[in-house]
Structures are given as C-alpha cells and as structure tokens.
Amino acid sequence: MNMKSLFVSAITVAVLLAGCSDGNKTAGETTGGNAKSVAEQVNRQLIGIDPGAGIMKSANKAIADYDLKDWKLVEGSGAAMTAALDKAIREKKPIIVTGWTPHWMFAKYDLKYLEDPKQSFGGEEQIHTVVRKGLKADHPDAYAVLDRFEWSTDDMAAVMGAIQEGKKPEQAAQEWVGAHASQVDQWVGDAGKADGKALKLGYVAWDSEIASTNVVKAVLESRLGYKVTALQVEAGPMWAGIAGGDTDAMVAAWLPTTHEEYFNKYKDKVEDLGPNLKGTKTGLVVPAYMDIGSIEDLNK
C-alpha cells in the first residue's frame, strides 16, 4: 500500500470514529466545543397531554409568560406522555413534560418540577367533588357519601400504583376498598341501600382521577347497591355534563387553577362539595439528571 492509500485509509477511519462518537453522544454533550442549550436538547418541545386539559392551558400560559417564542406544546394523552418520559429516562435523554402530583411517575422515576416564579401553573391545588343540582333531593344517600369522601395522596398513590403495575382499575379500587373498611365506613355512615338505582360519574383520563373515580364507584356499588356508570371524557364535557344534569357527579375537579375556566363558566349550575384531596400540584417536569431548575432557564 502506498503512502497516498495509507493517508486516505487513515482519514476514513478517523471520519468513521468521529461519526460513531457523535452518534453515541447524548444531548447536552459538547459539539465543536459548544454545549447544546436545553432548548436544542429537547427540540423546543414540551410534551403535553389531552388538548382540553386545564394543565395544557397553563402550559400555553407559561409559553407566553416566559416568552418561549419558538417552543411547541405537543398534544397527546397522559399515556403517551408517560411513554415518552419512560423512553427518555431509559436512554438518559432530556425531556420536558407537563406533570402533576399525585402521579405514579414520581414514585417510579427521579423527577423534579421546574420552578415557576411567574406562577403560570398557579400554586398548590385541591381536587374537589362537584355534583349536579338536585342530586341531594334525588339521591340523598349517594350525595352524603360523595360529601364525606376524602382521602390522602398516599391513599391515591396506592391505587394508582396497583393500576400501573397491571391491575385493572376496577380490581385495584375494589381491593383498596376492601383493605380500608374503617375509612370507607366513615364515608358511608348511615347511608341506606339504593337497590340498583343508576348513577353516572364523570372523569378525565388522568391516572389520579381513574383511581379516585373507581374507588368511589366501588363504594357506591358494594356498600349502597347503586349501579354506577363511569364516563371518561375530556374536562370541558365533564363539567358541561354535570351542569346540564346528564352526569350526576365527579370527584375530579382541580381547583382553583387547572379547572378555573370551567368552574367560572358553570359554578352557578353545579354544587361544589369541597376538596376530597389536598396538596396537589401541576407544572413542567424533567428528569432529575437534567441541569435546569426553572422555566426561566429554558431560553438560555
């Protein structure tokens, strides 16, 4: 082999090695001596959920509040969001998602909220029970149970965790109800039997609301004898259904921020029974290994 061939071969090997090295880089490593910004690492995308969810409105507000001009909020679903998060974490790649607590993903992964100094997502929230007008007169026993229903984030996390591990929501809820008889007794009180009367509960497809709605459904069916239909819809139709009397109740109203728009629109047509769970939160969430602490830093 002559010197020219050796030189060409050396150049080819160097190029191939450089290509392999570059292909194995994770976002955030230096390229040409310059570290990629967080915006470049995530392609200026925030991974969201259902377009009608209140958290999506808050995320769009954050984009405006923090002047994230070229950023895109990707619509999808809660399941699609967690699938994208799982894939990114397994590959140790950067990702920014819309997140909320309680949620099983905080137990499974090491995550953190980005600070929100402009309060685009509001502060701490509560999940309220909201019922249609006239429910107390039509179904006083169901009304009483719904009014007394209150549990903790740990309670909810237990049901969410069982579902995430593969149990059907109905099974996970029934098992939790069976294991917490004394707590359920407090909700039921002296409520009488319904003998197969029908009730409709509305809920959104958030893991937290799947858990709570199925628990309430299990209690109303097993303890009072109601025949309960759980209707999975988006937030707007959920509120509209209760305001219009087509749906009897929900235990899925995030207030005062996430569902603020719907509450203001329908507050005179529904009855708010108050919080059934306290200490919730929404915001932008990232894996703990990402070197960023605030939404303000997304433009840097």
TrEMBL record:
Keyword terms of this UniProt record: Cell membrane, Membrane, Transport
SUPFAM superfamilies: Periplasmic binding protein-like II (SSF53850)
Record-annotated ABC-type glycine betaine transport system substrate-binding domain positions: 35-177, 198-300
Pfam families reported for this sequence: OpuAC
Main location: membrane
Localization terms from the record: Cell membrane
Name of this protein: Glycine betaine ABC transporter substrate-binding protein
PROSITE patterns noted in UniProt: PROKAR_LIPOPROTEIN
Naturally occurring in which organism (per UniProt): Paenibacillus hodogayensis
